[in-house]
Amino acid sequence: MPVSCAAVGCTNRFIKGSEIRFYRFPVSKPQLASQWVQSLGRKGFIPTPNSCLCSEHFEQDCFRDYNGRQFLREDAVPTIFTASQSPGPDTLKIELRKNRGAVAPKDASKVQASQLSTVSEKEKAKERERAKLGS
Ligand SMILES: [Zn+2]
């Protein structure tokens, strides 16, 4: 069996020389293993000693540098799962509302711009008058 990632929607497989590393479920530490499963979000998933997650699901601070190589910390829990990590439509709506509120000052500047154009229209009219007088 080739080593592949147990995360939903993740198609990473172990490739020799690849930057993606694979970590086995900590089945010897049931408490930690259950945290991994919870974070994974796969209902009824029972990790076996061959179940792996790839390094893309761990925050950078889950790793420890040792002699130039990165090791997963013993208590690290994977947290990055794009399939289950949707912010939800409600959050997006709130963002849009915030943006709408910020539009108001722009309208004020538009008003000023139209006032400026009125002034320039007057200037043009004056110039037309001058041109008439000159001719
Ligand atoms: Zn993965």
From TrEMBL:
GO terms for cellular component: nucleoplasm. Its main location: nucleus. GO terms for molecular function: DNA-binding transcription factor activity; sequence-specific DNA binding; zinc ion binding. Residues 1-81 form the THAP-type domain. It is found in: Nucleus, Nucleoplasm. One of its GO terms (biological process) is endothelial cell proliferation. Residues 103-135 are annotated as: Disordered. Coiled coil: none annotated. It comes from the Eukaryota. Residues 120-135 have a biased composition (Basic and acidic residues). InterPro entries: THAP1/10, THAP_Znf, THAP_Znf_sf. The keyword Cell division does not apply. Keywords: Cell cycle, Coiled coil, DNA-binding, Metal-binding, Nucleus, Transcription, Transcription regulation, Zinc, Zinc-finger. DNA-binding transcription regulator that regulates endothelial cell proliferation and G1/S cell-cycle progression. Specifically binds the 5'-[AT]NTNN[GT]GGCA[AGT]-3' core DNA sequence and acts by modulating expression of pRB-E2F cell-cycle target genes. Belongs to the THAP1 family. This is THAP domain-containing protein 1.
